[in-house]
Amino acid sequence: GNTYEPMSTPLDPFDEVPEEMHPPENLAMVCPYIYRSGMPKKRNFPFLKKLRLRSILTLILEEYPPQNQKFLEANGIRLFQFGVAGNKEPFADISEDVVCEALLTLLDRRNHPILVHCNKGKHRTGCLVGCLRKLQEWTNTSIFDEYRRFSAPKSRSMDQQFIELFDVRPVLNRADARYLPVWPTMASGCKPLTESDPDNE
Length: 201
What we know:
This protein is an alpha/beta fold. The chain has helices at 45-50, 66-74, 96-106, 123-135, 140-151, 157-165, 169-174; strands at residues 28-31, 34-37, 55-58, 78-81, 114-117. Strands 1-2-5-3-4 form a five-stranded mixed sheet, sandwiched between helices.
């Protein structure tokens, strides 16, 4: 059921935003209950309140800014930090394990609504969203179009290579079917439990 859905419909972040509210840089809805952006600043906090976030997943390596930590504590928002170095040349490996753990966090609807961000909401966030799109069975063409739209004007070929080579199977094997989001597309073997109750078997 929808025990963990905080709202009956996900909030469109741009629906009737008052003028004094400022969305974070590069903010967008990835899919229901999952948002992406750059690092939220203090002036973005009133806007973020409107999203009724349960969690924030950050990909920055540095310590989370104290003012952001205070905002999370005041609003009961849980922080997941998966520090990833940006994929600049020379190519620094993004750990597939880290991306796998981050994706498992996104695939657990008990963490929704959730905001994913790095510093600019471009490359690291784009990599993670690209890997999520593989789980949603998007084509590489669509995945890279989206990646380039957010990373412009500097798309990184190493990021796109990472997405293309990323193996979703370990994520599928470890995802808890009880708490998967109900999305129209999901890679084979990763479906929410809806049909059978274990007691009836």
